[in-house]
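Quick one: structure tokens for this chain, please?
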Amino acid sequence: MTLLRDERLAAAFDHASRSYDTLVAANPGYHAHLRRSVRRLGLPGHGQGLRLLDLGCGTGASTAALRYVLPAADITAADASAGMLRRAAAKPWADGVTFVHAPAERLAEAGVRGPFDAVFAAYLFRNVTDPDAVLTGVRGLLRPGGRLGVHEYTLRGRRADRAVWTLVCRGVVQPVATLLGDAPLYRHLWRSVLEFDTAGRFARRLGAAGFDRIRALPLPGWQTGIAHTFVARRAHDRREDA
């Protein structure tokens, strides 16, 4: 199958937004894993005085994880899907959370400006057409030394990991999604993971984009070998060190 991209993918997420949280709730550990990935950023205190960007916030699960771990931070949450964003913005939030309708490639057009102390992106990079360009944009939004956290399905590379992922998608996720009328999006989910970077390759991609102190950390449970947290720092260049 051809993967969904750009406007077609945003439209598929718009359609799925009404039932997205129901499917998420059926994934054991989904919210706990997001909070774990936020903690792995190692940001100080409760986030007091920090500006965070939640890139690809969806219906707000990643935003909630950021708010839970770093309740004093100022959070800008952006997504390309208007439907998903409406669901996110309709939830109760404390002050300091702002939602912006914008794809990751066109944040500046929507008024999103750095510098941010950290950028968090959950389940985003395998869905963008040009992940290297998005990483370059993210680097430009971070302050020197700012941190990037990526929470993503990136297979470890073993045949068994591909088999488990396919079993879960075909045996559980896709049948439920078909009943809900969202089969194309979840066929895309299955295929996008198989075709995206392995964990090692994505770590190398981060280095090539100007990040250092890169760590690829597995997530627990059935997702071991399937999902990882990547933590990296915007590397200083010579002009910044001068």
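The two ends are 50 Å apart (CA to CA).
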